[in-house]
Amino acid sequence: MSALEDFKAFDVAGGALSLWTFRKSQRQGAAVPTYAGHWVGITETLEQALKAAIMAARDQITETIEYELLAQNNEGSALTLTTLETNAGLVIDAAKDELPAKKARKLKDLQNTEFYTVKIVSNGEVFHAICRANDSWKTKKFTGLLPVVFSDDELELEESPAFSLSKRFDFFVLADHVLISSKGNFESVMSYRQAHAHEFTELQAEPEFSETFTDIAEIINYVGSNKIQLRRSFAIRQKGHYKNQGFMEALRANHGQAGLKINFDAAGRIIPCAATCPDIFQALLDHRLMSLFSKQNYDVPSASTV
């Protein structure tokens, strides 16, 4: 079965549920982050509400799209990729057993939670519904404030500030598959942005890439720490069109016809500047296409072959 079919067939209602909260840290120079989790005791009412929310979210997904750095999904679709391509395995391992030592027993165990996962075990399979935590989990939200609750026609001090759980989930993990509803939150939780930044550093070090330009500094300034441009630079490296002499010759010959503002020196190297970097990236992604019917040029989010 497909990842979506497995997801649809999983017994959410009859499974054993536990709720885990996580904080994430990453040491300088470390390749992957560290995930520290606590499991939290919950009531039967909350358990049933979480299961209902997961089933409602599952019912909304009717199709899947293969995850690509520039791919986007809508309310009725999910992006898919394997767990081996993510840090999801670290979260799954950290939430493997509900040991007494890992149970949240104090308020500070829950404060500043970055994300949480609803873990369900059924018929030997383990399923995770993961969501980035909202501001109610942050201690700084209550700095300088008195948390109160309205009860019996009056306000009283709330000794234990409330947290809120979303009825929506950012991504789901089942077996070797990840289904993503919110790409941005998924990439934040799984530290994909840091991975993209590392890839961009390696891309700069490639002679075939750096020698494509008269000055790579303009490219570095253009990308900066912008997550969208980091995704695009990663996709440029994956596609590798800058390594293809035929592609680059065609770009030099046809960039004007394609409506791209790109300047070249006498040796055929690209002369980047702030004004032309967007078109340079469109070209290296092969995202500027011409319609055979209207003869118009179009920018496309994904150049998937058909």
From TrEMBL:
Superkingdom classification of source:
Bacteria
Q: What is this protein called?
A: Kiwa anti-phage protein KwaB-like domain-containing protein
What InterPro entries does the database record attribute to this sequence?
KwaB-like
For this protein, the record's Pfam families field holds: KwaB (PF16162)
